[in-house]
Structure formats: C-alpha cells, structure tokens
Design brief:
Blueprint: E1 7-12, E2 35-37, E3 54-58, H1 65-72, E4 79-84, H2 88-93, E5 97-102, E6 107-109, E7 116-119, E8 130-131, H3 135-142, E9 145-149, H4 153-161, E10 165-169
Parallel strand pairs: 4-9
Antiparallel strand pairs: 1-5, 2-7, 3-4, 3-10, 5-8, 6-7
InterPro entries: DUF6886
Pfam families: DUF6886
C-alpha cells in the first residue's frame, strides 16, 4: 500500500474522514497546524494501528555491512520493523485505511531528511479510502522483516547507534525499559 504518482497517503483506522484540516497534534513539537501524510518511502512506517509502538531500521548507502548483518541478520532484506508481543494481536486484527491525497498540497517535513509531508491548507481525499488489508501480509509482500520482541528498548538503543537509518513511532506506548 503505497501512493501512486502525484499522491501521498494518510493512514487511519477511521474510514469516514471526508476532509483533513490542519491541526496541532497533542504530541507536536512545533506550534504550526498541519495535515500530515507520507510518501512512498515512509508509507511502511504506518502499516500499524495508530498507537502501536514501533522501532524501524533500514539500510542506506552509508550503512556498513557489519551493522546490516547485526541489525537485519542473514536473509533479512533491507528493512526491519519491530513491535512488542503485546501488540501482535492488534496488528493482526487492525482495520486500517489509506487515504490518497494530492501531493501538490504537501511539502517535505523533517531535517536533516524528511520523514513526512505536511499541508497547511485543508485537503480532501481523492477518493474513498482503500482498506489496507492484512498488515502482516503487507510486510511480507514488501519484503520488510517484522520482528516481534518482548521489549523494544534494547533494539531501539542498538539501531540508533548503528549506521542504518531509523525511525521510532509511538514509543511512549512501549513497555518500560528493562532494568
């Protein structure tokens, strides 16, 4: 589930949204109001229920072979997403929808490399949302390793010190760090 040319995606468990209005998210680190969406590269970051904590890592041109082997392992592909066991059933049963939005309304957001695209004007979906389907199958079809761990923090700490690129979403919902 990725955007087509000229589109970006917004993922939601709500299939009834008819208009996206810029707002300041409760967890926002900036005061500006935005409509948030993602491009094709970052779409897999959102193949999860909204509040599911996830730690993700992927190979870039500056990643070392040693880090690739340590983080992804043999046959692990170029990308790994990790969740906690407590979220596995929710990932299996989530009803997720992808809203297709016109890319022309959006600009890259995030430095040094953008992790999202944002709009400062209201945006209407191009069509009714697409049901995303089985999230485990989606990962498998995309060749993305999905790792299920008792706790995300050791993995997160390792990938953030590696040469792989990484992203952590909703980590505030993860279990507490192991002592």
């Amino acid at each position: 589930m990725r955007p087509r040319a000229g589109e970006v995606l917004h993922f939601s468990e709500d299939p009834t949204i008819t208009r996206f209005t810029p707002h300041v998210a409760a967890t926002a680190q900036q005061p500006e109001a935005y409509v948030w969406a993602v491009d094709a590269h970052r779409a897999p970051d959102y193949w999860f229920p909204r509040d599911c904590p996830r730690a993700m890592a992927w190979v870039t041109s500056s990643s070392t072979e040693a880090d690739r082997a340590l983080v992804l392992g043999p046959g692990g592909g170029d990308r790994v997403h990790a969740i906690e066991y407590a979220w596995l059933e929710r990932v299996r049963t989530a009803e997720l929808y992808a809203y297709r939005l016109a890319a022309e309304h959006f600009s890259p957001f995030g430095t040094p490399s953008p992790h999202a695209v944002v709009s400062t004007v209201p945006v209407e979906p191009l069509a009714p949302p697409d049901r995303v389907g089985d999230l485990l199958d989606l990962h498998a079809e995309a060749g993305i390793q999905l790792r299920v761990l008792p706790n995300l923090w050791d993995f997160w700490d390792f990938v953030t010190e590696s040469t792989l690129d990484f992203s952590g979403i909703r980590l505030r919902h993860a279990l507490a760090r192991n002592s």
